[in-house]
């Protein structure tokens, strides 16, 4: 019977589950399972040096080889390159959070592999092989939940802020000029517009956190303030006057970046006086 891992797109596995299911090695970004005639590809979005790119439904996957030019005839690069004729089925996983493997889908070569320059683990420029991969059976890349994108950005940012300036500049200059893209789904809360407008009006043009006047007027001449829920709607907060404040753009950003307990307390006690 042909091997079928019976996974749906978006399924999350840990490394052990993945290895048991496919019968592959627990290490490496390209893992062959001889037993099942399968090749498991891992695109580590969190900590990989490799710059896999997603362009709509095509994934430009970086081959293997950490130092020096990559060889398309070596190991799993060869397996992937020949996957249209060698009968090996190819499965792609992404690491979007440490130690969690999310099944992206079964893929196949969607074009000729090509070379580009990327940095190796020793920081030297070298040529890598890029494999354009598409989904089999007309499947599409499943849109990523917006909160995953956010936590991924935060994880990458943490790593990137640790780079020294020289390394940072090197990578910035090397970056592909055409940005990758992928669909994202987010939950949009339908906030009550009467609550929002009343919160703005009762603030009378003064930010309820820093007590400064709104920094500018909008096109209709109203002081520009942004409406914010002290307990975030995403965390179960109410869309009510008791939970809504009007803030200047700086303070609004600050609440979203820091959400400091003392600021929340200050806003809530301010609200008690108003409502
Ligand atoms: Zn403010
Ligand atoms: Zn807000």
Description:
There is one protein chain. The protein is built from seven helices and 13 strands. It has 275 residues and is an alpha+beta fold. Helix content is 27%, strand content 25%. It folds into two domains: 12-185, PUA domain-like (Roll); 193-274, His-Me finger endonuclease fold.
Would you spell out the secondary-structure blueprint of this structure?
Layout: E1 12-13, H1 15-22, E2 30-33, E3 38-44, E4 53-55, E5 58-62, H2 75-81, E6 89-97, E7 100-109, E8 114-119, E9 125-135, E10 144-145, H3 146-160, H4 165-174, E11 184-185, H5 193-203, E12 226-229, E13 244-247, H6 249-257, H7 261-274
Parallel strand pairs: 3-6, 10-11
Antiparallel strand pairs: 1-7, 2-3, 4-5, 5-9, 6-7, 7-9, 8-9, 12-13
This protein binds zinc ion (2 copies).
Number of helices: 7
| SS-based class | alpha+beta
Q: Would you identify the CATH H-level superfamily of the largest domain? A: SRA-YDG
Kindly report how far apart the N and C termini lie: 68 Å
Q: Can you tell me the overall shape?
A: elongated
Sheet having the most strands: 9 strands, mixed
* Helical percentage: 25-40%
**CATH architecture tag of the largest domain:** Roll
CATH domain class name of the largest domain:
Mainly Beta
Range of strand content = 25-35%
CATH topology of the largest domain: PUA domain-like
Total DSSP E strands:
13
């Amino acid at each position: 019977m042909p091997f079928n891992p019976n996974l749906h797109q978006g399924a999350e596995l840990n490394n052990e589950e993945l290895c048991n299911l496919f019968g592959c090695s627990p290490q490496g970004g390209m893992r062959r399972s001889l037993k099942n005639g399968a090749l498991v590809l891992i695109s580590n979005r969190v900590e990989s040096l490799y710059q896999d790119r997603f362009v709509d439904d095509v994934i430009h996957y970086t081959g293997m080889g950490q130092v020096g030019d990559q060889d398309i005839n070596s190991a799993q690069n060869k397996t992937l390159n020949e996957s249209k004729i060698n009968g090996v089925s190819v499965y792609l996983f992404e690491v979007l959070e440490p130690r969690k493997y999310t099944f992206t889908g079964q893929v196949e070569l969607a074009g000729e592999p090509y070379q580009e320059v990327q940095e190796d683990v020793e920081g030297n420029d070298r040529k890598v092989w890029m494999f354009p991969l598409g989904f089999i059976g007309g499947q599409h890349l499943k849109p990523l939940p917006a909160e995953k994108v956010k936590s991924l950005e935060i994880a990458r940012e943490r790593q990137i802020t640790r780079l020294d300036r020289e390394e940072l500049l090197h990578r910035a200059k090397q970056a592909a000029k055409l940005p990758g893209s992928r669909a994202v789904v987010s939950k949009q809360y339908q906030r009550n517009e009467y609550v929002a407008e009343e919160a703005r009006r009762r603030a009378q043009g003064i930010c309820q956190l820093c007590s400064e006047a709104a920094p500018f007027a909008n096109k209709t001449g109203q002081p520009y303030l942004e409406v914010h829920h002290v307990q975030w709607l995403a965390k179960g907060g109410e869309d009510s006057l008791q939970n809504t404040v009007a803030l200047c753009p700086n303070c609004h950003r600050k609440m979203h970046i820091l959400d400091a307990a003392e600021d929340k307390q200050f806003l809530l006690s301010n609200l008690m006086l108003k409502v």
